[in-house]
Amino acid sequence: MKKKVLLSALALTFGLALTACGNSGSDKAADTGSKNETAAAKSSGDVFTIGATGPLTGSAASYGNSVKNGATIAIDEINAAGGVKVGDKTYQLALNFQDDEAKEDKAVNAYNKLMDSKINVYMGAVTSGSSLALTDLTAKDNILQITPSGSAKDITKNPNAFRLCFTDPLQGKMIADFVLDQGYESVAVLYNNSDEYSTGVYEAFKDELNAKGQSALIVNEQSFTNDDVDFTTQLTQIKASGAKLIFVPAYYEAAAHIVQQAKQQGIDSAFVGSDGWDGIIAQLTDKSQAEGAVFLSPFLASDPSAAKFTDAYKKAYNATPDQFAADGYDTVYVIKADMEKAGSIESDDLIKAMTEIQVDGITGKVSFNADGEPNKEPKFVTITNGEYQLFDNN
Fold first, then answer.
1. Separation of alpha carbons 281 and 72, rounded Å
2. pLDDT for 3-20, tens place per residue?
3. Which of 237, 255, 247 shows the shortest CA–CA distance to 204?
4. What CATH number does the domain containing 49 carry?
5. How many domains, in total, are found in the chain?
6. In the listed set 297, 313, 348, which residue is the last one of a domain according to the structure?
7. Could you list the residue range(s) of the whole structural domain that residue 106 is in?
8. Is 63 within the bounds of a domain?
9. Half-sphere exposure of 194 (CA within 13 A, CB side)
10. How far apart are CA 23 and CA 186, in angstroms?
11. How many CB atoms lie within 10 A of CB 42?
């Protein structure tokens, strides 16, 4: 059923940036957020509301808060420059960001709350599981959905859904090609078999090696489940295999435990990871434990092309932005370009215009195909002397 998009003039609130480890509870986050308002919420006139969901509390809070903070900086920049011109109207942007704790049931409740408040576009969800739980709901509501960082393949199965980040299958393929290009002779894999993201990346990694006739490169395969923190058994098996490289397609919390425990066992194998590794340094007491690790990422804060954003983020939040912050920032600018191209804020027009825009963002120049997928180039980041640096392939 086609849903007519309504304008909203609600006063919306923003939470303060949380640390990488998150917050201890939702109530505290809500109390903090009530103290801040966007310029759009305080202005008169036409307001275009971006609804978003992601984890602001819980174990994945770093991702949600980074996306929210990055989006906030973009919105403030756009509003300060006069807003978004659409036809004969100019809109100020506002953000309504609801906490979903990276849980599917919470995501549904958060999304329904947004729809009840009459948002104009849905930016989310931040994580793959939550995004998958909402894909059919957003299609039924016929609202444009753009996930900044949800990478599971089926998130974009409906024509109203798009993503800014790489898909899990594309990540797996690119990492496999990277491993082959680097000439590694043996690889062990340690992945989360209870997580769609980790499993999806690994399956694509295997498929690409098979397609290149290099399936024998994988000499050991180990798995773990959500909330595991002890990887002694898996790493013992990996050490015995003699693998020269350990591939860990996982989020930074698990990756941090793994690299720490690997060093404790005397494992000197190299590490390669997926984009969920972004943020791992902040989790390590001894940053040298991740020295030389490489992971896929669309963004690096020290890249000169991102200097303006990085400086603004540090000033606002006293922290260095990660790729999730950059994803949130770029997604807002994608929405702006889409509004301008559509010449309308009606859902059908916004959805149609998505394949007609190109945005030169801090995560790269991006356009979108009819399947909702982004066209953009990857970057590989390495950890050197406790800092993230672009990987030099030469």
1. 24
2. 333 333 333 333 323 323
3. 247
4. 3.40.50.2300
5. 2
6. 297
7. 26-165+304-376
8. yes
9. 6
10. 40
11. 11
